[in-house]
Amino acid sequence: MDLQAIVDGIVAEMQPRFGEGKVADYIPELARIDPNQFGIAITTVDGQTYTAGHADVPFSIQSISKVFMLTLALGKAGEGVWKRVGREPSGSSFNSIVQLEHEHGIPRNPFINAGAIVVTDMVLSGYKPREAIGEFLRFMRFLADDDSITIDHKVAGSEQTTGYRNFALANFMRGFGNLEHNVEMVLGVYFHQCALAMNCVQLSHAGLYLANRGTNPLSGFSVVSPKRARRINALMLTCGHYDGSGDFAYRVGLPGKSGVGGGILAIAPGKASIAVWSPGLNKVGNSALGSEALELLASRTGWSVFGN
Ligand SMILES: NC(=O)CC[C@H](N)C(=O)O
């Protein structure tokens, strides 16, 4: 299979449509991003990387960080994580508060904002916020084997001043006793993890452990057990695209996690880690062209986990 020809073909097909969708404008710093950008990178488990388009332009990974923070929290708290957050798709938008009251402050899953805020609270345990942010940054540099990865402090600051809904979610959960640390501390870490800037190549490297039974084939390091990698993939498949998760599974058929920066990390277990980025979002807040590109990729590679 000629993966280079596949990614080149996808970019050529997407090019006339660059700019489609709507950039996230509720975070002022993200509203300024040029929507006419599109990048894709595939890294296979045998270590080859194939890129096309703007694959080396850094973007805000936003909610894709939730996969990596969950990995850290599982390492710290093990199955105890699931006492404080569920594993079911929410069927609601990423920043919804409605289910939280009925479900006594226990968020549906770790990939909606409420769930991710609880996960961040777990990672923060025993640390100062600055240390937890440092641990996350080190982890990402280690996974991608790239020390040039940084946090965009302007984006973090922008969210800090406008993240009213996240403050509401966090306060609500603290009221139910499901946050151990004060809201400002937890959200300080959460906004910084979301503001990590990575390009498609770096992100495809960072996700590789999930495609390779928990071990990063580039470094040989075991990040998580095969069982845990499988389970994180299951959560990405069922919950990684908020209330668009069912549609993404139907159209693409791969575990994936999106972010409002326009990035998507998709995992083809046993085969490859794929990162796409295009800032324009669809109605549910997932990259419009990114989702379509992955649909093309899955059909051209036959990589859907549901068969080809
Ligand atoms: N879907 C997302 O990427 C949301 C992340 C964003 N930082 C927020 O909390 O609103």
TrEMBL record:
GO biological process: glutamate biosynthetic process; L-glutamine catabolic process
Entry keyword set: Acetylation, Hydrolase
Reaction(s) catalysed (UniProt annotation): L-glutamine + H2O = L-glutamate + NH4(+)
GO molecular function terms noted in the UniProt entry: glutaminase activity
Residues bound to substrate: 63, 113, 159, 166, 190, 242, 260
PANTHER family the record matches: GLUTAMINASE
UniProt record similarity statement: Belongs to the glutaminase family.
Assembly and interaction partners: Homotetramer.
Regions crossing the membrane: none
EC number: 3.5.1.2
InterPro entries per the UniProt record, alphabetical: Beta-lactam/transpept-like (IPR012338), Glutaminase (IPR015868)
Protein name: Glutaminase
Enzyme class: hydrolase
Organism: Allorhizobium taibaishanense
